[in-house]
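Record now logged underneath.
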Amino acid sequence: MATLNLQVGASTDDALSRYTTDWLPTEVVIGCGNYNSTFNNWRSGTRFQNVTIQQGAIITDAYLTFRAYANESAATVNTNILAEDTDNAATFSTLADYNSRTRTSPVAWNDIGGWVAGNDYNSPSIVSLIQTVINRAGWSSGNALVIFWENNGSSSGAYRRPHSYDGSATYAPKLVITYTTGEVKTSGDSGSGAEAVSLRELGIAEEGNGIEQSLTAAVMLSGDGGSGLEMGGLLKGLFSQDEGSGADSIKILTNKAGCDLRLGNYQGRVSIPHKEVRL
């Protein structure tokens, strides 16, 4: 499991739109909510470059972090968070460009509490948004992704404003993603045998489909090329995104030099230099 910490890194990689015709790509803040009867639809976009997560990885946690620009406590602030549903999101250019981008299904961020200037505030989990983009057939590690933050029926005068990149590169919006690549690894490195066999190589993630939200894995140990069960049984583990409901790892110990690895209908052979396989 790994965690990627990203931050908006260019002036054109975040922008604020107020009402339907107001485009502010270099404002010192971005924001979301209902400012007043004239500017009643605040919404923002943030772009994160160099997202070094491979296609089909399993996203286990993801959220935005905003640094509050000012003290703001008016209620009720109701918003939606969405991702741009594309392989490699471009930087922002015009309001027409912003409006035309295809969005994923939203994640609600409602009843946002009061903000104190200088404090950091995290969004709800946006795992589903990041997973949708990472699972796209055309996604590649190192691509960029865009997250939108849009008003969804906030009360008049209720809004929240974080720093933008132009206001402070240090306090620009952040995105934190925790993920796993779904690899089967052997422990120890004696220079002999394969160090890792990815599930993609075994056919689990072929044709760009990625690893689904759950995967049943079975490991069969054999002492002589698969003709018999060394430990007398089949060990199974369920991998799941559901808040730790599945096993994080399974350890299989054997005194043999290899084992047959079977996942669903797929099979491969893994060398075990130090007699342990971790899933």
Observations:
- The chain has two domains: 2-180, 183-278.
